[in-house]
Design goal:
This protein is α/β, with parallel strands linked by helices. It has nine helices and 13 strands.
Length: 296
C-alpha cells in the first residue's frame, strides 16, 4: 500500500495534462499518482495511456463535478494520505515531502496546503489559496496574500507555517480517514467552495489545518469557469450560503446580514453591466432556500 496518493481530477483536459502532469511525475517519486477521469470525451485517456504509462487512471462514467469526482476516486484509495491536486498545477522539487513532514510532526493537523503562486505571474500569489485560507465573521473566504481580487507579490512575507481556516482544493494534502469520516466534499455543491465547506466540517470535529510555505506550487487557475461567467457567480453565492448554514454554530444573524449584502452585490454586478451575474444572485438565493432543507 502506498503511504500517499496524489489524485488529479480531469475532464477533457488532454492539453492541460500534457503541460502540467510531467512536473508531477518528475517531482513525486514516493507517491502513487492517479488521474481520475470525469467522463472525458476528448483524447485524455489516450494521452494518459501513451504518454504517462506510470500514472494510474481511474475512469468515471460521466462528469460528476469536482466534489463527487474526487469522492468517487478517494473511495477507491486506502493510502494514509491523499492529495487533491488540480490538473493545472505545476509542482516543484520536494513539494510533497514538506507537506507530509508537517502532518507527521503534527498529529492534530488533518490537512495542509503549500504556498500557491500564479503560473501566469509567477512572482505573485494565486487567487485560489495563496498562502492559506480564512473565513471572516460574515462567512466570506479570503487568503493570506489575497483579498478579494487583489493578490500580492511574494517577497517571502508569508514564509512561516500558519494555522488556517481552510486549505485550497487546488492542492490539499489530507489524512484519508479524516476526509472519509467527515463525509468528503459535498456533491451538492458540484464546484466552488466545496473544499472550504469540508475544511469547516473538519475543524468542527476538532482538527486543525495549516499552510506549509516550505512547499511551493504554481497554479494556472480559472480554467473551469472564468471570472465573468454567471455560473461562477451563481455557485459562489449559493454554496457560500449553504456552507454558512451547515457549519456556523449560530448562523442566522450572519444570514440576515448576507441577505442585504447579496442583493447589494447583485446591483453592483448590474452597474458593471454583468446582467448574467445579477440574475445569478437571485437564482442562487432561491436555490439556497430550497437546498438547505436537506441540511436541517
Amino acid at each position: 500500500m502506498d503511504k500517499t496518493s496524489v489524485i488529479i481530477l480531469n475532464w477533457n483536459g488532454a492539453r492541460i495534462l500534457r503541460k502540467y502532469l510531467p512536473s508531477v511525475v518528475a517531482h513525486t517519486p514516493k507517491a502513487e499518482i492517479i488521474v481520475a477521469d470525469n467522463g472525458s470525451t476528448d483524447d485524455s485517456l489516450k494521452v494518459l495511456a501513451q504518454e504517462f504509462p506510470t500514472v494510474r487512471t481511474i475512469v468515471l462514467d460521466k462528469n460528476y463535478g469536482f466534489a463527487e469526482g474526487y469522492n468517487r476516486a478517494i473511495d477507491l484509495i486506502d493510502s494514509e494520505y491523499v492529495v487533491l491536486l488540480n490538473s493545472d498545477v505545476e509542482v516543484t522539487d520536494n513539494w510533497l515531502d514538506s507537506l507530509l513532514d508537517y502532518l507527521e510532526q503534527h498529529p492534530d493537523v488533518a490537512a495542509v496546503q503549500p504556498k500557491i503562486r500564479s503560473d501566469r505571474q509567477r512572482a505573485f500569489f494565486e487567487h485560489a489559496g495563496a498562502a492559506g485560507g480564512f473565513v471572516n465573521a460574515l462567512g466570506y473566504p479570503y487568503c493570506r496574500g489575497r483579498v478579494l481580487w487583489k493578490v500580492e507579490e511574494d517577497h517571502g512575507q508569508y514564509n512561516t507555517p500558519i494555522e488556517v481556516d481552510w486549505t485550497s482544493g487546488a492542492c490539499m494534502c489530507v489524512r484519508t480517514q479524516v476526509y472519509k469520516a467527515c463525509g468528503g466534499l459535498d456533491a451538492a455543491f458540484f464546484a466552488h467552495m466545496e473544499e472550504i465547506d469540508l475544511c469547516w466540517r473538519i475543524r468542527n470535529k476538532g482538527w486543525r489545518l495549516a499552510c506549509v510555505p516550505d512547499s511551493t506550487v504554481y497554479h494556472l487557475g480559472g480554467g473551469a469557469l472564468s471570472y465573468d461567467n454567471p455560473r461562477k457567480a451563481y455557485l459562489n453565492h449559493r454554496n457560500n450560503l449553504l456552507m454558512i448554514y451547515k457549519n456556523k454554530k449560530h448562523p442566522y444573524g450572519v444570514l440576515i446580514a448576507r441577505f442585504f449584502l447579496d442583493y447589494a452585490a447583485a446591483f453592483f454586478y448590474l452597474l458593471q453591466g454583468r446582467w448574467g451575474a445579477f440574475k445569478a444572485v437571485f437564482q442562487a438565493r432561491r436555490d439556497y432556500h430550497r437546498m438547505r432543507r436537506a441540511y436541517r
